[in-house]
Each structure stands twice: as C-alpha cells, then as structure tokens.
Specification:
The complex is a heterodimer of chains A (233) and B (423).
Chain A (H helix, E strand, L loop, with lengths): L1 E10 L2 E11 L4 E6 L5 H9 L6 E6 L2 E2 L5 H4 L4 E4 L11 H8 L5 H14 L1 H5 L10 H13 L5 E5 L7 H16 L3 E6 L2 H7 L2 E6 L2 E7 H6 L1 H7 L3
Helix pairs in contact in A: 3-6
Chain B lengths: L1 H24 E6 L2 E6 L2 H19 L1 H16 L8 H21 L6 H26 L8 H18 L3 H23 L4 H21 L1 H4 L16 E2 L10 E2 H4 L6 H28 L1 H11 L1 H6 L4 H27 L9 H14 L4 H17 L7 H15 L19
Parallel strand pairs in B: 3-4
Antiparallel strand pairs in B: 1-2
The chains are: A alpha/beta (233), B mainly alpha (423).
Chain lengths: 233, 423
C-alpha cells in the first residue's frame, strides 16, 4: 500500500532521514516508534510531500508520489491526522468535518458524516459547537473524524495520544483498532510505545533518522532493547 | 498598588500634554511673507491642561471605572441568550436587509445633493471594504496595498475612456477583471509569506502602483492626473446638459423634464448602490460555498488545511483575485464619480482606512463591515464642525472602539452554542 524505499530527507543542509525503508501492507496497522527528534514526524511529512524526499522513492498503491505536490497526494485516498490535532478551532464541529470531505460530493459527505457520528457519538452531541471549545480528547476524535471524511484507504496518525488522559488514550486506541476492521490501513506514529506496539501488526523503531529494528508488534514488545529504550525497562 | 497607579496616571497625563500642547498650543500665523508662531489663546491652553487632568483622573481610577463599564455591558448585551433558530434568524435578517436596500433606493430623491454624493462615496467604501474583507477577514492575509487594485480599476476606466473612448459600462467589467489579474499576479510572489512579511510586500506593491502612475507621465499624465472622465449613461442617455457622445440622447430631453444636475448624482448613487448590493451578494454566496470555508480553514490552520488536500496556492490566489476584482469595481465607479483621478487618491492612507473599516466592522462579518464603512466615512464629515480637530476626534473614536469592542462592531457570527459561564 505505502512503500518508502531508501528515503533521504533534508531540511536545508541537514539530513533528517538517512535512507529509511518502510512498508505498510493493505489492512495492516503499522506502528512507528522512536524518541524525540528521531525523525518520526519528518518521515510522515515526507510521505505528504512537505518536505519532499531528496532521494529515494515514496510509493502509494503502486504510484510514485515522491515528487507530487502535497495537495495532490492528500487527495489520493490517504488521510493524515496531524500532530497536535490541528482542528479548525473557529469553525464548528460540523464545518470541520465538511472540510475533511472537501473534494467529495454532498451525498458522500452526508454519508461519511453519519458514519463519523456513529464512530464518535460525542461529536454528534457537539455538532454546532466551536471546535476550539472542546476538550483535548474530543478534539482528537474530531481530527480523526475529519480525516475519515475523505473516505481514505489509508490513515496516518501522528501522535494521537499526545497530551490526553490515559482513559481517553484507551478510547482512541480502541477506535484505531476499529478502523482496521473497516478495512482502513493504519500507519501509527507514537511515542507511547507500549500501546502502539500492542495494537500493531508490525512495528518499526526509528532512531536518529534510521530504522533500527523492525518486527511484529508482539516481538518488538518482547525485545529487551526496545523494553530498555522505550518501555522503561 | 496605589503608588503604581499614581505613577502610571502621572505618566499618562504628561504624555497627553506632550502630544497635545505642541499641536493645539501653538498657531502658525502668516504676517506678510513671514510665518510666525503664536501661542494659542487662554481657553485652548486651559483645555489642554483640563484634558491632561481628565486623563490623570481616569487613569488613576481606571480599574474601578472599567470594571463598572464591563459589568454594564455584560448586563445589557445578554450574551448568554440562547441563539435564535437558524432559519428564523436568516429569515429576519434577509427581510431587514431587503428593507434597507429598498429604503436606500428611494432615499436620494428626498435628500440634498451633497448628502447623496457622500452616500455614493460611502457605497464605494462599502464595496472596497467588502472586497478586502475576503482577503483579510476570511482568508486572513493581511493586505496593506489593497488600494493598488482600486487604482487599477480607476485608471483602467480613465485610460480606456481617454485613449479609446470606451464608455463606463464597458470599462466596468474590464477594470474589475484587470484588477483581478493584478491580484493574481501579486498573489504569486507572496504565496509563501505570512503575517508581517505579507503585509510589507503588499504595502510595497501598493506603493509601486502609485509611484508608477505618478511617474509614467506619458501615459497617465503623472501627478496631473486624468480629467474629463465621462459619466455613466443610462441606455445611451447622457446626464449632461448637452450631449457629448455620438448617437447618445440626453436624459432630461428624453423624459421631457427640466435639466437638473442632481439627476447625475442620483444616477451615480444608484449605480453604486446596485454594484454594492451585487458585491455583497456575490461575496455572501462565496462565503457559503466550499471555497469560502477553504479560506477560513486556511486562516485557521494552514497545515491542517493542506493535510486535507487543499492547495494553498489555489485558495490564497482565489482570495486575492476576488478581493481585487471588487476593488476594481469600486475604482471604476470612483473614477466616474470624480471625473478626475490622480495618484493622490490612491495613497497608503486609503489602504489604511479600508483596513480600519474591516477591522472596526469585525473581521469576516459583512453587516459589520457595511456599518463600519458608513461610520468611518460619515464620522469625519459630521466632525467637520470641529474643523482642524476632526481627525483627532476620528482617531479618538477608533481608539475607544478598539478598547471596548476589540472584536469589531458586529463580529462574524456562526451558529454555535456556547457553554454558559459558571458564576
């Protein structure tokens, strides 16, 4: 579904990714874990084409998207829940969702809106509320809902647990599990390694711009190195 | 706390003295060929010191005064009321607006020529402010050179009529489209810029256009401007005493009424009114369309908007272009109303005033912007009695406005429910 082949990414002269290869197969949940500054967000941004990879290839469903502009990539069946949620705080919940389905027809929007409300009944209650006035968990739900509005085949989540209460995190991860059942491929980037690996079919460990380890989620959880470095021993 | 208050109040009073004494306390008087400085009369100087005293007292008790005022407004404005049902509100709103427009249609026939002329100017500012509202209020792109597009519209008509004899009705769409093209052209280099940087570049663009008009003497007449711009015609009927254009007839002869200079003024007013209404309706439509929401989304969060597949280029350029289009509209009407234009009409102050209208009215709100345009244009006229102090009063009014209603006269309202504050 999504393949990164030996991707190098630069910010100006500084190389942030030193040849990263990642593969996400259809229907999988793949987690990418790593410490601060390891390049997790850079990797996602490279997939979105902002910044573009300086060498290597990014392939989405067999199509080379390495040099495509961001707007075009984001319209081809892939959706991202950006780090820190980034909802439109001045717009209402409903308007936020409609923005997610910007390139769909009205009928499709209505359908996916209903679907999102089924997943997150909380959002339905807050339909006409300004998004910025909701709690962090609700905003994260909205961010995920907004990403789902475009009916993506694949969804990328950047740190969905950031700054949320443990109970809410649990809820969010349940939803992510549910997305897989609907046939959506999930690429999850997390610092919260334990929960991310628990949920994932496979996982990658990114360290200073390189993939250090890759294995199934269970094996990574059991791996002593991972336990020491990311799971607090 | 008290000591600090006194210190602060003293400081403010001294500042008041420093600012106002040189301006009000001295007069320049011409004696023969020399200009001498004469101290103002005693009442003015008393006034200055009195003002300083008022500032001192106000600053001293500022907290309690502002606190009381705050209580008053929260009591009266009823901010915690449940919002009206949406369809009901929209219905009332549209009825009221239709009523106002109908009133505005018949109003000039009962008013003096000067008042109608002023109203035409107000309508031109309404068009400009509505256009800038798209760029600044909705798309959140701070444009300090908006007057450039206004100038493009005005000069397009002036030049076309001077060199090619094009009439108002032909020049109107051409001027607007040309202004829109300039908006597009300006849009490209500033796409990557945001906030302060964008403001500076647009400011520069506004100046470039003005300086170009000022110096391209062979084409634009430079600082001498262009005169003799024809008035608009009504289906080939002219409003002048004598018919100038070939094949045209004159309005008063066709309808067999006595010639009156007022006909032209009223006609121009009606054109401006119709165009202003069209501007408002078209932009209102845009706001409800996906592109309007895309503008707002880009303003709220650029990264999120891009993550949803919106193209930053397309959204920003569309805002710039549409904003500029209506400035071109306004410019054409302005050129026709004045009959003479020169680069002096398109200085930075104009941009600043239009921006002030948008901010005062409440960013993104159409009704607010219309109200603010009326207030900002008429206030200096009303304050004419105070002659040289009128800009002072204007400035003071703006400062007060921003202190009490920083969100603008009528901030943009979206239907939403607010949680009641817990007492």
């Amino acid at each position: 579904m999504l393949v990164l082949e030996d991707v190098h990414t630069h910010y100006g002269k500084i190389e942030a990714l030193h040849g990263v290869s990642v593969e996400v197969k259809k229907g999988e949940i793949v987690s990418l874990i790593g410490a601060n500054g390891a390049g997790k967000t850079t990797l996602l941004m490279t997939v979105c084409g902002n910044p573009q990879a300086s060498s290597g290839r990014v392939i989405l469903e067999g199509r080379d998207i390495t040099r495509e502009p961001t707007a075009q990539i984001m319209r081809s069946g892939i959706a991202i829940v950006p780090e820190g949620r980034r909802i439109f705080s001045g717009l209402t919940v409903e308007e936020n969702l409609h923005m997610g389905g910007f390139f769909n027809t009205k009928g499709e929007i209505r359908k996916s809106q209903e679907h999102v409300y089924e997943l997150f009944p909380r959002l339905k209650e807050r339909e006409n509320q300004r998004a910025g006035t909701m709690s962090g968990g609700e905003q994260q739900m909205l961010a995920i809902g907004r990403a789902l509005m475009s009916k993506p085949n694949m969804i990328i989540l950047d740190e969905p647990s950031l700054g949320l209460a443990p109970l809410v995190i649990k809820q969010i991860f349940e939803i992510i599990g549910h997305l897989r059942e609907e046939g959506i491929t999930v690429f999850l980037v997390e610092q919260n390694a334990h929960q991310a690996l628990n949920l994932a079919d496979r996982g990658y460990v990114l360290e200073t711009g390189k993939i250090r380890l890759q294995d199934t989620g269970k094996n990574l959880l059991a791996n002593p190195d991972v336990q020491n470095a990311y799971l607090g021993g | 706390m008290a000591a600090q208050n006194i210190k602060h109040a003293l400081f403010c009073a001294v500042i008041t003295l420093i600012i106002s004494y040189p301006i009000l306390g001295f007069n320049l008087e011409a004696q023969g060929i020399n200009v001498t400085i004469v101290g103002a009369n005693a009442t003015t100087i008393m006034g200055v010191f009195l003002a300083a005293l008022v500032v001192f007292v106000f600053q001293l008790f500022r907290d309690s005064i502002m606190g009381k005022l705050g209580n008053l407004s929260s009591l009266s404005s009823g901010t915690h009321k449940e919002p009206m049902a949406e369809n009901k509100r929209v219905k009332i709103e549209s009825w009221v607006l239709t009523g106002i427009v109908v009133l505005a249609l018949f109003w000039p026939f009962f008013m003096s020529r000067g008042a109608v002329d002023l109203a035409t100017l107000v309508l031109i500012y309404i068009m400009l402010a509505l256009g800038l509202n798209v760029v600044v209020g909705l798309a959140g792109l701070l444009d300090l050179g908006y007057v450039a597009f206004y100038a493009v519209g005005a000069y397009t008509f002036a030049l076309l009529s001077q060199y090619l004899g094009v009439s108002f009705w032909f020049a109107l769409p051409i001027g607007a489209l040309l202004a829109a093209t300039f908006g597009l052209v300006l849009g490209f280099p500033v796409l990557r810029l945001r906030g302060d940087y964008l403001a500076i570049v647009t400011l520069g663009f506004g100046e470039i256009i003005r300086i170009l008009l000022n110096n391209w003497t062979s084409l634009t007449g430079g600082p001498n401007g262009i005169g003799g711009i024809p008035d608009p015609t009504l289906f080939g009927m002219e409003f002048g005493r004598r018919v100038k254009g070939e094949g045209n007839t004159s309005f008063h002869e066709t309808f067999n009424i006595a010639y009156s200079g007022e006909h032209k003024v009223i006609f121009l007013y009606l054109i401006a009114l119709v165009l202003a209404v069209i501007t408002a309706l078209v932009i209102r439509r845009f706001m409800r369309m996906p592109v309007g929401r895309a503008w707002e989304a880009l303003r709220e969060d650029e990264i999120a908007a891009r993550s949803l597949g919106l193209s930053r280029t397309a959204v920003k350029l569309s805002a710039f272009t549409i904003g500029a289009f209506f400035a071109g509209f306004a410019g054409t009407v302005f050129a026709s109303k004045q009959g003479f234009i020169s680069p002096e009409s398109f200085v930075f102050l104009e941009s600043a005033i239009i921006l002030a209208i948008v901010v005062l009215g409440g960013m993104g709100s159409q009704i607010g912007v219309v109200l603010a345009a009326i207030a900002v244009t008429i206030l200096p006229e009303l304050a004419r009695e105070f002659s040289e102090y009128r800009m002072l009063i204007f400035g003071a009014a703006m400062v007060l406005m921003m202190v009490w209603r920083p969100q603008g006269l009528m901030p943009m309202r979206r239907i939403h429910i607010e949680l009641k504050k817990q007492e």
